[in-house]
Specification:
The protein has one domain (11-249). The chain is built from eleven helices and no strands. It has helices at 3-9, 13-29, 32-52, 57-89, 92-97, 103-133, 141-163, 172-186, 198-206, 208-222, 230-249.
């Protein structure tokens, strides 16, 4: 077959990305632990703390955007740190690079899977907040989308960057939870971060999650507008740029152990 004929029948870049994306979605739903961590766990936290603070609407207005921010973190940072480590150490990345599929198409499909999970989680939490916890529909949808998109870019890139330093899949849980758990504890996921001691608040302010939660709170509850969160946007952008640089700089298709 001639080169022109082969190119005419070969799938396009978009088609290859779409096929791989559909495969990633099927594999995700066939993995109960992934589905639980990405969907059930944040909703369980929301139900638990929503029940505890059911008589206090002010606290509910903090919990709902806080859990939404935690969901962005878990569906991007945690999920990609686990998945990229697993695929690297199992030799999947190396084998995929040896196939005709463009490397970028494969990575886009993986990223698209994480983005889809994030979008679904935000929709679920928004609906649950409205139906069960008295939180109105988002007051500024544009602000909500902006902060979710920035949060996805920031935490997805940081998750990929973290996978570079995880030596093997068996230790991935320890590495991820060593960052995930302290971050959600000090960043105001379950309480108003302004009420914590100044030392802890200062650490939280240097991290991106608290600014994502503030932006989501402004969009979902307060209706404050993007102009009131410019400094938070700057922190998210700075972390996103750092994450992208680290993710690209340290990326490897090869296993770290034989």
């Amino acid at each position: 077959m001639s080169e022109s004929a082969a190119s005419a029948v070969s799938p396009s870049f978009a088609a290859l990305s779409w096929r791989q994306y559909r495969l990633e979605r099927k594999m995700f739903w066939r993995n109960p632990s992934s589905a639980f961590f990405n969907f059930a766990l944040p909703l369980l936290f929301l139900a638990l703390f929503g029940a505890v603070f059911s008589s206090n609407q002010k606290n509910l207005n903090v919990i709902v955007p806080g859990i939404a921010g935690m969901s962005v973190l878990s569906t991007t940072f945690s999920a990609l740190a686990y998945n990229m480590t697993f695929m690297r150490e199992q030799g999947i990345l190396k084998r995929m690079r040896g196939t005709p599929m463009p490397s970028v198409a494969y990575l886009l499909a993986i990223a698209g899977n994480a983005i889809t999970n994030t979008a679904l989680q935000i929709v679920l939490i928004t609906c649950a907040g409205k139906v069960f916890f008295g939180v109105d529909w988002p007051k500024d949808v544009g602000e909500l989308i902006l902060f979710v998109v920035l949060g996805v870019i920031c935490f997805a890139s940081l998750g990929v960057a973290l996978s570079h330093v995880i030596p093997n899949y068996e230790s991935a849980s320890a590495y991820v939870n060593a960052i995930f758990l302290p971050t959600i504890i000090i960043s105001g996921v379950f309480y108003d971060a302004d009420r914590v001691p100044k030392f802890i608040n200062g650490i939280a302010e240097a991290l991106p999650l608290v600014h994502l939660i503030d932006g989501l709170s402004g969009a979902m509850v307060k209706g404050t507008g993007i102009g009131d969160h410019l400094s938070g946007l700057g922190v998210l952008v700075a972390w996103a740029l750092l994450g992208v640089w680290l993710a690209v700089r340290g990326f490897s298709w090869d296993q770290r152990r034989s």
